[in-house]
Amino acid sequence: MGARSLVLIAALAVGLVSFCFTGHPEAAWPLAQIDDYLLNILILAGINVILAVSLNIVNGHTGQFSLGHAGFMAVGAYGSAALTQLNGKACLASLSFLGSAAPLGLFVLSLLVGGLLAALAGLAVGLPSLRLKGDYLAIVTLGFGEIIRVMIQNTESLGGARGLAGIPNHTTLGWTWLVSLISIYCVGSLVNSTYGRGFLAVRDDEIAAEAMGINTTRYKVTAFVVGAFFAGLAGGLYAHFIGYVTPEGFSFLKSVDVVVMVILGGMGSTAGVTVAAIGLTFLNEALREAEQYRMVAFALLLIILMITRPQGLLGGLGGLARWLPGKGGKS
């Protein structure tokens, strides 16, 4: 049985458990035994995994450099929250045929809507900008990410600079890691498919790929849209976990955080960026007690790792990296 099949089975198992225990947390042993603080970190780690894996398809597998991932996360977060918080009653009425499962159905629908809106934003950004390369593309995506944030900040129906509060807390550990496993499976399957080899061709030598008849712009736009979709799902999960979102939560620094996860894990290594996303989430919390020295210690650790392993944690390695989708390094 292949690694991607194992990931899919694990995702289905997590989804089944999540569905069975929705609304009955006391029955969800051993989840009931987990400290709330640790539970929150595990949920944030799952959200970061989705963000890192989705950005990896653009920065790692396709060889581009995007700095606007937080903008797509913001679109997903606000789009999902607007459906459940601003239009929740009307949507629940339309889903009344689901009975007691209507709130769950609305949550899943809101995640999909947030993901689709983010994908549309990715298409709008990708079509005019992905003919650019290197530093120029990074600057353009950074600008688009800030445009999205400022537009949300000036939209009063979404709370403006005050943010959007009162979002239902539907996100659980099970649902977070269900989406995480699905994102790992989908990205890994896409990249390792016959079609997905076009992404790797663009990354390895774009000029040679064009000479072979590959439409490199189409592949780059596709990678951008797929990455934006999963970033939108992560944004929806984040909004329904925190219960309150503001434009400042999706600034340029958030995009940098995700880029760091991808670089530390290993560009193009799905296993690596997954490990890096989880590790950096826990490391950030472990250093929180250091207060004013926390960011200094965090930066020093990153510098040391980059000096000792510039290719990333699992970049270019066999072993574990071969057992997960993406197959590490130059998969």
Question: Helix and strand layout, with pairings?
Answer:
Layout: H1 3-21, H2 36-61, H3 69-86, H4 88-94, H5 102-129, H6 134-153, E1 164-165, H7 173-191, H8 197-204, H9 206-211, H10 216-242, E2 244-245, H11 252-265, H12 270-286, H13 294-308, H14 320-323
Antiparallel strand pairs: 1-2
Helix pairs in contact: 1-7, 2-7, 2-10, 2-11, 2-12, 3-5, 3-6, 3-10, 5-10, 7-10, 11-12
What's the quick description here?
The chain contains 14 helices and two strands. By secondary structure, it is mostly helical.
Query: How many angstroms does the end-to-end distance come to?
Result: 19 Å
Q: Can you give the helix content as a percent range? A: 55-70%
> What does the largest sheet look like?
2 strands, antiparallel
Q: Using only CA atoms, what is the Rg? A: 19 Å
Give the CATH topology: ABC transporter involved in vitamin B12 uptake, BtuC
The number of distinct structural domains comes to 1
Structure explained in plain terms:
The chain has helices spanning 3-21, 36-61, 69-86, 88-94, 102-129, 134-153, 173-191, 197-204, 206-211, 216-242, 252-265, 270-286, 294-308, 320-323; strands at 164-165, 244-245. It has 331 residues and is mainly α. The chain has one domain: ABC transporter involved in vitamin B12 uptake, BtuC (Orthogonal Bundle). Strands 1-2 form a two-stranded antiparallel sheet. It is globular and about 55 Å long.
